[in-house]
């Protein structure tokens, strides 16, 4: 019994044979080879059109011909000989990243048995994958195949190399597919470009992998792909160590095409990019959200609070008209500017950025964490550009209890982890894969990873952060000290002992053609406002994870740079866009509507924002740690004791909390809400809002309406008002209190309170 | 309903796999010779019996196969490790010397020694082993318990998927299925005999009537919004549990006899004994899937700690696990529940064959072991084997996908049964192309 199993890191054929309990004692091998020959003959005749172009005159070399075969058949995949320990005694570099080592392993090791230059057919390189002799990886290459004849002729020709030739680029035709219908087979043709200017059709050696195998069916033999459902899908094409993503778009059906934006409401370039994508996807955006809904949304997003808690002029004037149901014209731009200028904005965005930087996740030094937090808050308050913040963090030195940014070097343990944190925050990239091997899905190499770690190795990560004159990390590939280098920049840094090598690293982030950092930050800002990054997850920028709106991302990054890396500038632009202002009520229910921003997403509030909102509505502050009552948002450390935050599910910042959980509440949490103190204790607090309103003599029904407006910003319907009035009229005074308490409890547990919509 | 087309397709697919085995794809249609393949019947066979429920004993962190179910007494010392081995009820099969109780009931257990996966990282490994699917950036798959919650009729007030004391930190559990299929973590500390659900008793001043009114009020507030009802479901389920004394009693270990409490073991391996006892109580009351989570198996240092952390230690991880596993299987059998309850012991991967510089073992997914008992499993056998150094499968490699196919088959769920993601697309419960572990099902 054999199964076809695709490897997570690529495609890999693993053949297995059931050795126990064969119900029919057939001669299994004989049967297999019979079938193989029969089918192979048939296939050879039908596939000749697809076969690799191997002109008899062209020289067959290791780099151009053999490594592609090793990748195509999964020989150098992570699950096989490409694993760190190799397999069955043979170790190859992952996807052929290291030609020299692979050549040595195949040609020189094992006394020339793998490649027998005297008798090519005796080479293990041929006999193993064709299973002339037993091969743990099974039967991969048939005798009639092109791969077989290429390997044979390569060996017969003296196992030549083309050491000066580099694979520079892999090009796909088509490079992007926009289809009308499902079900069509689409052939992909791949061309490899080499450093000498030559190119080859390498389609037969292309490995195609659908990001979602259920959505796209790949036929490896014919290099064709077929979409099984509508939407946007990514297929990753690999040739040797080059990976290229291919986007397939099959628009959703039905619905009229996009209407032009209404006159008098000029859309920003931001909206233009989003609308263009919607149009391409065959999607229709919803209408704009009502003013009150937009106000609650933008308030939660910019200051992490419910609108009624804001002392701004607009809020006050709105509060005066609140009891008339007439809608008030809201100057949205002025409202946003008020929010951006507020102290609350500074608190909230300090909290958000602190989460990205993992402030306090691992530190046991509360004073230092406080200093880090205070520094960050100061930067945001003064409107420091994110370029400046970056420089200060990267080049930080000093006493962590006094010099806030120095704590960047006490957030994780060790230079490699520091390199990963650098990648995560400044590049939006997960470099970790490149610790053990070149990143299989991106351009980062082991040299990049350990080169970056070598830079950080010179930082003494103690209470006082200082520089060491000499320090190194060992490159596991060479077992020698890694050469300091900036990721993706092949020139190594001078190891001058007097120089702070972190300075050129910071400079690199702001080189004119490097938008890495700007893109990573605007993507996080976009996610904070829109619920989903243009690249998702936000710390996983890589060649094979393209943005849903690449042009928009580029434009946002450019604009961010032009604004001087101004946080408020980009947030303001997003907040005032049509895209942001859409209703969250889905119109058609087309899947992935929120992915393309046809409707505003409904997002669960983070534990801290929710905790503060509960305190605000109840008018009773919560207590965190042993300190005086405060707001959850203002906590510097995620380690401060709080049952409230644990129940509401806070992020401990130990891992990148890139998605604050779209998960609904679990049973444990709901049980706590029902019978735990979190809500119950404070609803009846004598100094709380509910009791205040009662003492002020407000009518019960009015209290219900007032509390609902505060909590969910949505007026009570006439029908509900009638229903409540009917019930209240029949209750005794003591029972009226209980009814009010129960209603407030329900308000704090309903979806419209616990989410931003 | 299976149409003729489906039938043809599955017939074709079962053939297709055999041709893949021969290294070629039948690229042009169905005109294949009608060869009878040895396992064509096995593929078509429907599950002979249906385990009602399943207890997964999850050893979080990746238990060492070499120190438990697959010792290598004849290997060089750096592979063999510091622990000894003992004979078992099965002639020729040896286990770690920390596992006498399991050794003496091995006639009821099947050990798969040739599990293999390429994923040696906790999150990925956990996802693969608990769902049968490799993790994909496009989709998070549901764990066994979540799938079972989705396909089985609701059994009542108790949550259909329970974790004792709390679920793995590495997966959400529900994957793409609705959030209410995620495991309910009981909470509390079994290590201190404090395994109990919190907040079952009404808060002072509240009673069931008011809780009921609160639930209704939330429903009304949610009803007028257009949001999803996931939170509403959570509120409803919590209320039902609060309203049922009988259901709440399921979580109370205090009426279990002291001798049984002892038999399972009170301490060790993060309370695995009391957790297993709780699992049995829940299964007995109709919960279809319970995951017992024992932590601390990520033994990068000093592997000998698994046996003894100090002289005279009786509650190190391995002896505690041995005691709990054997007690659970024995208790289920005594109650006549073993045939309808599948018990599994596993973690996300095995450990490196070579002892590292810190006298521990690192992550090793290439080969590791899973133990299974009850629920239609043919006990008293070892399936597959690892090679001499416990590095790779030697015979009958079994993938986590194969394991999923087997578990679903035992539980009476067709591995090809289709569930639907939130945006409506169909996904099989077990991956296509995987097979039932040969010889495992009795």
Short description, anyone?
The complex is a heterodimer of chains A (757) and B (442). In chain A, the strands form 6 sheets. Chain A has a 4-stranded mixed sheet. Chain A is an alpha+beta fold and 757 residues long.
List key phrases describing it.
heterodimer, A: 757 residues, alpha+beta, 3-stranded antiparallel beta sheet, 39% helix, disordered N terminus, B: 442 residues, alpha/beta, 8-stranded mixed beta sheet, two-stranded antiparallel sheet, 16 strands, 30% helix
Task: Please describe what this structure looks like.
The complex is a heterodimer of chains A (757) and B (442). Chain A is of the alpha+beta class. In chain A, the strands form six sheets. Chain A has a four-stranded mixed beta sheet. In chain A, a hairpin with a 2-residue loop joins strand 9 (231-239) and strand 10. In chain A, helix 16 (516-530) packs across helix 17. Chain B has 442 residues and is α/β, with parallel strands linked by helices. Helices cover 30% and strands 14% of the residues of chain B. Chain B contains 13 helices and 16 strands. In chain B, the strands form five sheets. Chain B has an eight-stranded mixed beta sheet, with helices on both faces. A two-stranded antiparallel ribbon of chain B has the order 2-3. In chain B, strands 9-10 form a two-stranded antiparallel sheet. In chain B, helix 7 runs antiparallel to helix 8 and helix 11 (272-284) packs parallel to helix 12 (317-334). The two termini of chain B are 27 Å apart.
């Amino acid at each position: 019994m054999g199964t076809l199993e695709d490897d997570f890191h690529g495609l890999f054929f693993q053949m297995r044979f059931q050795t126990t309990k064969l119900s029919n004692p057939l001669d299994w091998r004989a049967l297999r080879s019979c079938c193989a020959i029969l089918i192979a003959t048939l296939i050879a005749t039908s596939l000749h059109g697809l076969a690799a172009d191997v002109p008899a005159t062209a020289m067959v070399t290791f780099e151009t011909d053999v490594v592609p075969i090793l990748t195509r058949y999964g020989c150098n995949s992570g699950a096989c000989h490409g694993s760190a320990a190799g397999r069955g005694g043979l170790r190859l570099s992952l996807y052929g990243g290291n030609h020299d080592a692979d050549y040595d392993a195949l040609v020189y090791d094992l006394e020339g048995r793998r490649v027998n230059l005297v008798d090519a057919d005796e080479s293990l390189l041929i006999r193993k994958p064709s299973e002339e002799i037993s091969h743990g990886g099974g039967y991969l290459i048939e005798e009639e195949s092109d791969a077989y004849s290429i390997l044979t002729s390569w060996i017969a020709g003296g196992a030549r190399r083309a050491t000066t030739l580099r694979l520079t680029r892999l090009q796909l035709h088509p490079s992007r597919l926009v289809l009308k219908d499902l079900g069509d087979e689409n052939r992909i043709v791949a061309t490899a470009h080499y450093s000498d200017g030559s190119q080859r059709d390498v389609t037969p050696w292309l490995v195609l992998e659908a990001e979602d195998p259920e959505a796209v069916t790949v036929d490896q033999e014919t290099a064709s792909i077929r979409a099984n459902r509508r939407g946007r899908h990514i297929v990753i094409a690999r040739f040797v160590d080059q990976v290229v993503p291919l986007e397939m778009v099959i628009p959703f059906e039905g619905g009229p095409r996009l209407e032009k934006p209404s006159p008098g409401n000029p859309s920003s370039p931001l909206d233009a990019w989003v609308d263009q994508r919607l149009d391409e996807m065959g999607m229709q955006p919803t209408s704009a959200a009502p003013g009150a809904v937009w106000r609650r949304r933008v308030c939660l997003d910019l200051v992490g609070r419910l609108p009624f808690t804001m002392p701004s002029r607009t809020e006050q004037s709105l509060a005066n008209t609140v009891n008339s149901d007439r809608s008030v014209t809201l100057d949205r731009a002025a409202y946003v500017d008020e929010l951006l200028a507020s102290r609350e904005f500074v608190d909230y965005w300090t909290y958000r950025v602190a989460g990205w930087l993992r402030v306090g996740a691992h530190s046991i030094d509360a004073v230092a964490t406080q200093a880090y937090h205070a520094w960050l808050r100061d930067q945001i308050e003064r409107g420091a550009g994110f370029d400046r913040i970056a420089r200060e963090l990267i080049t930080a030195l000093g006493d962590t209890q006094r010099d806030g940014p120095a704590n960047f070097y006490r957030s994780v343990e060790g230079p490699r982890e520091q390199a990963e944190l650098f990648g995560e925050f400044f590049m939006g990239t997960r470099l970790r894969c490149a610790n053990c091997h070149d990143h299989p899905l991106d351009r980062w190499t082991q040299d990049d990873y350990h080169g970056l770690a070598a830079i950080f190795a010179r930082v003494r990560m103690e209470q006082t952060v200082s520089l060491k004159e000499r320090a190194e990390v060992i490159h596991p590939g060479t077992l020698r000290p890694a050469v300091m280098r900036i990721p993706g920049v092949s020139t190594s840094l001078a190891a001058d002992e007097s120089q702070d090598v972190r300075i050129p690293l910071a400079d690199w982030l702001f080189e004119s053609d490097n938008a890495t950092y700007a893109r990573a930050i605007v993507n996080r800002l976009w996610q904070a406002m829109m619920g989903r990054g243009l690249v998702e997850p936000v710390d996983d920028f890589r060649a094979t994870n393209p943005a849903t709106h690449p042009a928009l991302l580029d434009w946002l990054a450019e604009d961010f740079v032009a604004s001087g890396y101004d946080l408020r500038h980009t947030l303001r632009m997003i907040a005032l866009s049509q895209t942001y202002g859409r209703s969250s009520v889905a119109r058609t229910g087309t899947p992935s509507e929120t992915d393309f921003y046809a409707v505003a997403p409904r997002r669960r509030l983070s534990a801290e924002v929710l905790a503060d909102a509960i305190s605000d509505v109840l008018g009773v502050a919560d207590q965190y740690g042993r300190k005086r009552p405060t707001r959850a948002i203002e906590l510097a450390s995620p380690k401060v004791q709080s049952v409230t935050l644990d129940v509401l599910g806070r992020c401990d910042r130990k891992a990148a909390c890139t998605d604050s959980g779209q998960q609904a509440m679990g049973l444990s949490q709901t049980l706590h809400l029902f019978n735990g103190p979190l809500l119950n204790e404070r609803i009846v607090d004598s100094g709380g809002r509910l009791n205040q309103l009662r003492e002020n003599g407000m009518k019960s029904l009015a209290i219900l309406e007032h509390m609902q407006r505060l909590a969910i910003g949505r007026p009570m319907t006439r029908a509900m008002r009638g229903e409540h009035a009917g019930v209240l009229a029949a209750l005794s005074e003591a029972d009226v209190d209980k009814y009010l308490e129960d209603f407030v409890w329900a308000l704090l547990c309903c979806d419209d309170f616990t989410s931003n919509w | 309903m299976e149409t003729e087309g489906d039938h043809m397709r599955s017939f074709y697919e079962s053939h297709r796999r055999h041709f893949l085995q021969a290294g070629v794809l039948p690229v042009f249609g169905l005109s294949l010779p009608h060869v009878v393949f040895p396992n064509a019947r096995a593929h078509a066979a429907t599950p002979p019996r249906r385990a009602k429920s399943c207890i997964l004993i999850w050893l979080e962190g990746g238990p060492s196969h070499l120190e438990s179910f697959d010792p290598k007494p004849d290997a060089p010392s750096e592979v063999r490790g510091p622990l000894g081995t003992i004979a078992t009820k099965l002639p020729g099969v040896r286990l770690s010397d920390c596992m006498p109780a399991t050794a003496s009931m091995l006639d009821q257990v099947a050990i798969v020694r040739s599990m293999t996966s390429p994923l040696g990282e906790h999150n990925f490994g956990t996802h693969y082993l608990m769902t049968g699917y490799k993790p994909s950036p496009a989709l998070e798959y549901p764990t066994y318990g979540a799938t079972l919650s989705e396909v089985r009729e609701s059994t009542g007030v108790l949550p259909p998927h329970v974790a004792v004391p709390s679920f793995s930190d590495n997966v959400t559990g529900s994957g793409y299925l609705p959030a209410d299929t995620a495991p309910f973590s009981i909470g509390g500390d079994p290590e201190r005999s404090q395994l109990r659900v919190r907040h079952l008793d009404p808060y002072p001043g509240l009673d069931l009537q008011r809780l009921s009114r609160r639930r209704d009020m939330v429903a009304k507030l949610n009803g007028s919004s257009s949001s999803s009802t996931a939170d509403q479901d959570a509120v409803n389920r919590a209320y039902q549990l609060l309203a049922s004394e009988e259901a709440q009693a399921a979580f109370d270990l205090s009426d279990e006899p002291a001798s049984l409490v002892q038999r399972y073991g009170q301490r060790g391996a993060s309370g695995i004994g009391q957790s297993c006892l709780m699992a049995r109580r829940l299964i007995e009351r109709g919960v279809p899937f319970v995951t017992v989570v024992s932590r601390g198996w990520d033994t990068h240092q000093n592997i000998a700690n698994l046996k003894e952390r100090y002289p005279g230690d009786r509650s190190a991880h391995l002896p505690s696990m041995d005691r709990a596993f054997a007690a659970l299987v024995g208790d289920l059998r005594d109650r006549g529940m073993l045939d309808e309850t599948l018990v599994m012991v596993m973690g996300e991967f095995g450990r490196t064959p070579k002892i590292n510089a810190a006298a521990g073992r690192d992550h090793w997914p290439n080969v590791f072991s899973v133990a299974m008992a009850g629920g239609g499993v043919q006990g008293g056998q070892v399936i597959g084997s690892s090679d001499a150094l416990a590095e790779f499968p030697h015979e009958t490699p079994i993938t986590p996908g194969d394991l999923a196919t087997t578990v679903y088959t035992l539980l009476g769920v067709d591995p090809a049964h289709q569930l639907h993601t939130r945006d409506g697309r169909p996904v099989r419960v077990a991956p296509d192309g995987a097979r039932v572990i040969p010889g495992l099902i009795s």
